[in-house]
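Q: What structure does this chain adopt?
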Amino acid sequence: MMRDLVLASNNAGKLNELQAMLAPLGLQLIAQGQLGIPEAAEPFHTFVENALAKARHASAHSGLPALADDAGLCVDVFGGEPGVQTAYYATRFGYPKGDDHNVTALLEQMAHIDQRRAALVSTLVAVRHPNDPEPLIAMGRAAGEITRERRGSNGFGFDPVMYLPEHGQTFAEMPTELKNQRSHRGLAARQMMQLIQERWLA
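A:
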């Protein structure tokens, strides 16, 4: 019975969020770094292609089923950018790579923009083996607006500036449980749980 999955990421925030959501299925996520697996190349322009490349790479190196997440921020007024380049967004403006710098750069770039619609997007891909012809693909999208300043201290990434009008809060102001229900990764993870249960565990 399949119990271990390699997570094609070394992001501790992602690992904790996804492990909490997949635990009810009795699945254990192992970060690829723990197995000495190097990071995969991400040469593509869409979340789904990059997530698939990462999942196949982790599975090939580990011999285990693998789960990969490619996520990012898509800002309407920037034509969906930074998109797949979200992790490196700050470096385009002379800052070092990092969540906090990304937020700083975004707030600076949007300082004089009134149209602030944006979405956090998460695409999860799972493969049973590197050449799996039928990868499981789940997508989650949380749409909202970019605030003009940081609000809240929970979460990571763009959580302090991603405001959800229906809740009147940013993700960083929400309790973890509510955030996991509403977040792009939470929505994708619930879809993925259902797919794993139906296709792999049934």
